[in-house]
TrEMBL record:
<dbReference type="Pfam" id="PF13637">
    <property type="entry name" value="Ank_4"/>
</dbReference>
<feature type="repeat" description="ANK">
    <location>
        <begin position="131"/>
        <end position="163"/>
    </location>
</feature>
<feature type="repeat" description="ANK">
    <location>
        <begin position="197"/>
        <end position="229"/>
    </location>
</feature>
<feature type="repeat" description="ANK">
    <location>
        <begin position="98"/>
        <end position="130"/>
    </location>
</feature>
<dbReference type="InterPro" id="IPR002110">
    <property type="entry name" value="Ankyrin_rpt"/>
</dbReference>
<protein>
    <submittedName>
        <fullName>Putative ankyrin repeat domain-containing protein 29 isoform X2</fullName>
    </submittedName>
</protein>
<keyword id="KW-0040">ANK repeat</keyword>
<dbReference type="Pfam" id="PF00023">
    <property type="entry name" value="Ank"/>
</dbReference>
<dbReference type="InterPro" id="IPR036770">
    <property type="entry name" value="Ankyrin_rpt-contain_sf"/>
</dbReference>
<feature type="repeat" description="ANK">
    <location>
        <begin position="164"/>
        <end position="196"/>
    </location>
</feature>
<dbReference type="Pfam" id="PF12796">
    <property type="entry name" value="Ank_2"/>
</dbReference>
<feature type="repeat" description="ANK">
    <location>
        <begin position="65"/>
        <end position="97"/>
    </location>
</feature>
<feature type="repeat" description="ANK">
    <location>
        <begin position="229"/>
        <end position="261"/>
    </location>
</feature>
<feature type="repeat" description="ANK">
    <location>
        <begin position="32"/>
        <end position="64"/>
    </location>
</feature>
Length: 316
């Protein structure tokens, strides 16, 4: 493993000396299938990568995980090495176990220059991992706005979902990536596209307490009624103590007396969870009032009236 040691340390002279003895194969592997080229690429040692390629190292050999030298270079954001490997005929669309590609891992790690060189050399932006996730989905999940914009410009499908039905918009709502969510909505992402369990982006953002995402989804017309699974965003916000979101939902016309599949109203969930502020707020909401947007001033009154109870709104 002397060649591997030289590669991981970036010792190009030692690597050259060992190789020139002719006693060590340039593509020798360890027990995980790792080659010296993979180690050099993963550690950003471009001189070693160049030397190994000059000596005939195969850029497409894989570890047991299916990962290659260009996968690790893309993961690290090592643009020069990625470009060198591409010029050496590295297969940049070859997936690892699980279906990850150099493009997908570069999107995950927010390496836009690497994404650009891969796409411009023909990397498949529509490739889906085993779970259906695309490069755009992974970029949205990671909150990498510039990469999301770039992929959309190059034709990425904003509505291509994972196998469980989760879309890039859905995952951005769950993670609270407001700017990504706004960009996807601007490019006509399906606003109420639900995961296979019926959960929509609005429900997930309400559940997680992502106020800006909720506000943007409501502005764009997200459905505040019952989802296919018999729950609503208002139920989620009430259950998890997100008073600001409860208020936004009511302002947007959410029915405070809506019952879920178990016949339970949002106020009942809030009461069971001891969210007194939400209970008091929902009590003041008149379902017959034609102007539910008055809820904002009502919320302020409830907070002032109950301030002495020292209850803190969480996760909003």
């Amino acid at each position: 493993m002397r060649l591997h040691s030289a590669a991981v340390k970036g010792d190009v002279e030692k690597l050259r000396q060992i190789s020139e003895t002719g006693k060590v194969c340039v593509d020798s592997v360890d027990k995980e299938g790792t080659t010296p080229l993979i180690l050099a690429a993963a550690n950003n040692h471009i001189d070693c990568v160049t030397e190994l390629l000059d000596q005939g190292a195969d850029p497409n050999l894989k570890r047991e995980t299916g990962t290659t030298a260009i996968f690790f270079a893309s993961q690290g954001g090592y643009l020069e090495i990625v470009s060198l490997l591409i010029n050496s005929k590295a297969e940049f669309d070859s997936p690892s176990k699980g279906g990850g590609t150099p493009l997908i891992v570069a999107c995950q790690c927010n390496h836009l220059p690497v994404v650009e060189v891969l796409v411009e050399n023909g990397a498949n932006i529509h490739h889906q991992m085993d779970d259906g996730a695309t490069a755009l989905f992974i970029a949205a999940q990671s909150g990498n706005l510039d990469i999301v914009k770039y992929l959309i410009i190059y034709g990425a499908d904003v509505n291509l979902c994972r196998t469980d039905g989760a879309s890039p918009l859905w995952i951005s709502a769950q993670m609270g990536h407001f700017e990504v969510l706004s960009e996807l909505l601007y490019h006509r992402a399906t606003i109420d596209a639900a995961r296979e369990d019926g959960v929509t982006p609005l429900f997930k953002a309400s559940h997680k307490g992502h106020v800006e995402c909720v506000r943007e989804l409501l502005k764009c017309g997200a459905n505040t009624g019952l989802m296919a699974n018999g729950e609503s965003a208002l139920h989620a916000a009430a259950l998890h103590g997100h008073l600001t979101i409860v208020n936004k939902l009511v302002q947007s016309g959410a029915d405070v007396n809506l019952k879920n599949k178990e016949g339970v109203r949002p106020i009942d969930l809030a009461r069971d969870a001891d969210y007194t502020l939400i209970v008091e707020f929902l009590k003041t909401c008149n379902p017959g009032d034609e102007a539910p947007c008055h809820a904002s001033s009502t919320e302020d009154k409830v907070i002032l009236d109950l301030e002495h109870k020292d209850q803190v709104e969480t996760n909003c």
